[in-house]
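Progress report, Aim 2. The chain analyzed during this reporting quarter is listed below.
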Amino acid sequence: MRVLAAAILGLGGVVAPAAGTLPAPTELTVAGSGETALLAWRQPPGERARAFRVYESGVEITRNTTTSAQLTNLGFARTRTYTVTAVDGAGRESSHSAPISRQLGVSGVPPMCSPAPPSGLAASSVTASAVTLTWTGNGDPGTTTVTGAPTGPVSTDGSGVRVGGLSPATTYTFWVTHFPSCFDPVPQPATVTVTTAPGRLGTPAPPAGVTVTGGTDTTLGLAWQPPAGGAAGYAVYDSGHRVATTAGTSTVVRGLYHAAGYTFQVAALDARGNESPAVAVRGTTAACQARPPRPAALTATALSASSVRLSWEYDAAASDYTILDGTGAAVGTSAGTTTVLSGLASATAYSLRVAATLARGCGRSVASAAVNVTTPPGPAGRPTRPAELRMVSGDPMTGTVTLEWIQPPGGEPAVSYRVYRGAEVLATTGTTRVALTLPQATTQVLTVAAVDGRGLESAQSAPLTIRVPYLPPP
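Predicted structure tokens for the chain:
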């Protein structure tokens, strides 16, 4: 019996691809409303991806270490096209996923749904008692229901299921219908006809009480009760792909991604390998990573005797970044992965690092490796740091905002001011007031620095986060 059980448990195992051949992400979906949306995807079984890169129309816009990314600042209604790649531990990138295009950025209106039914419906791993059905989603999150099984409908939020409890040498027609969450169009099913393999009639009863027993950022534990009459083993499926087998009544599914939801199916197997109907259970991995990445590829370039430009890369989601000096003290913050640090001393060597403030309240990453930079010689004096930066007006018709600030007394006289967005100078003005025309319905993080007659800058003001006003469509 032990040899027979081992043979059963070896069926349908996942074979990892060779190193450097990560498959492209699949099953892209877009959900959300207004100017924010969630792009999500699935990474096929195999070698685990270290990170993912999201592209809009071929231009990289963000990175993450899990299978979703928050899209912000979408502005007014326009059609956007996204692809995603997977990156392995050596930094090698997969090919791009199939693109997904959606109209996004209509205030209060969900992304446009696609009326098309699931495509590419196919049957595989057909046995005398079970079949795997897979399909390509239309990009709209929601629930897909498979009907036609003798034991009733099977529902999933993925793009594949394992249907068990079938009779041998029998023809079945399955209907796959997607019910999107963005609104309720008339569903259009796809169909496939399958004939099971010959074999002996009879399958075990399904396991009972399937539950998620806990997990980490990369694992989920599952447990269940044996069916009446017992079972020789159990198989666990994720979107129709077998990810675990066991002779016991529990298992741990590994190699998952943090802050991600998974729907697993657990089926009982008899001594001949026949499968019961599968029982579904959903679990979510821990939001915070046990070992989040740290910022990498930090570079520093001296722009003047008072300022340095910094840039870096970060694979995970971050709400902002803190720039640290050689003592570990914070000397600046940034909303993105480029910034200008100003108000520095002339002819001075600096050792700088960057730490990320992680999304979802997951704390701060380990700081990056240090980068050394020396400012060129120049006068010692600097203007005082501008204060009380604020938005005093905004035009919802044009997206023009007016900013004001004050220049505290002391220091070198300021002859002009530079308004920054990260490392980008948006405007230079000779007064403590400026009007900027910015993309409507977007969030902007701005600072201002005072400039003296020699072109040397003060430290930048405290950052100001504003929402550019807009007139919603009727």
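Residues 302 and 308 are 4 Å apart (CA to CA). The chain has four domains: 26-104, 116-284, 296-374, 387-467. These observations will guide the mutagenesis work planned for the next reporting period.
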